[in-house]
Amino acid sequence: IRHAAQRVAGLGLAPLVPEDLSQWDGQTPGVDVGAPRHASHQRGKDVDISLHGEDGLSEWRSYCTVERTADGRECVAGTVANYDARANAIWFGDLFATGRVTMSFLDAELIVPTIPGAEAAEAEGELAADVLPLFSDGVHLQHWPNHDNHIHVRVSEADGATGLVLDLEPEAFEPP
């Protein structure tokens, strides 16, 4: 996460805003007050991170028109606006290149422009070619409701995980 934040700073964009890494004791955020905000986010292996808009800001805001479904908040098809797919793809790629990301969640409507954003970044040499396939492998970027304003990233707890060699079998995961 620090590496991605440094990359964002190098691009001249607003800082990333991480949220809900875990409580001080490693428990799910909100457990201490009897109101957990997630089913995961334990031991610091899950984090929610703000996204960048085309205005260069990284504020917690929706990048589409949302509708409420039985599963939660989801983007209405064709309503993505002000989402900087290329800038987000660059720092997502830096996260993926560590070999530590086991999965991440983003609304499907935001995944759609992120893939060509990654392709454009790769064409300009801002994203490694061997990272590009991870954007469409169905693991590194997965749709999940309530991810219209941030990306949820899960990292491996394994020591020494580096490079692009990954066990692409996601861990058992409960909805955030």
How is this structure best described in words?
This protein is of the alpha+beta class. Helix content is 22%, strand content 15%. The chain contains three helices and six strands; from the N terminus they run αββββαβαβ. It has a four-stranded antiparallel beta sheet, covered by helices on one side. Helix 1 (2-10) packs antiparallel against helix 2 and helix 2 (85-97) crosses helix 3. The longest helix has 16 residues, at 108-123. The two termini are 19 Å apart.
Shape, principal axes of CA atoms: globular
Rg for CA atoms:
15 Å
How many strands appear in the DSSP assignment? 6
Strand content: 5-15%
State the end-to-end CA separation.
19 Å
Written as H for each helix and E for each strand, in order along the chain, the element string is: HEEEEHEHE
> Mean pLDDT score, rounded?
85
Secondary-structure-derived class: alpha+beta
Q: What strand order characterises the main sheet?
A: 1-2-6-5
Largest sheet descriptor? 4 strands, antiparallel
Question: Which range best describes the helical content: under 10%, 10-25%, 25-40%, 40-55%, 55-70% or over 70%?
Answer: 10-25%
Count of individual helical segments: 3
Name the poorly predicted regions.
Answer: 160-176
